[in-house]
């Protein structure tokens, strides 16, 4: 199983839109799926007008999913929300992720994808001391994938959920850069 990725480009928007329309994605991402909404929300990152990274993930050369990766300091309001729950080290990063094809879920591939992105993050972002990931408590599959990928739960707190049907309770997960003793 080989995981690779590249940054999202505008030509990927139709695929991204298809994934966002999948019931297993729509449940947790709750994103508008019109072509205009996808272009509006993902275009600035694709054009590198925004500091985060939207990564199109491939499994053995075939599109698998999306990982959004960013430095928390680039989003001060979000950083402040997390810092109200747990200490956030300077330079900390965060990720969000989805597997687009419903035939690929429930097989441990999400865990492999998360591990791969974490390993590359240490190389591509050498100043990052850790990765913090908030997950709505109701999303068992997501936080279990994080645990299997080596993240540990470090906090519980209220954050606005992506989907208004969810409770505000989120679990916060953390993995530290190897060798830092964090």
From TrEMBL:
Keywords on record: Antibiotic resistance
Entries under InterPro entries matching the protein: Acyl_CoA_acyltransferase, GNAT_dom
Entry superkingdom: Bacteria
Keyword Ribosomal protein: no
Keyword set includes Transferase: no
Residue ranges constituting the N-acetyltransferase domain according to the UniProt record: 3-178
Identification of the protein by name: N-acetyltransferase domain-containing protein
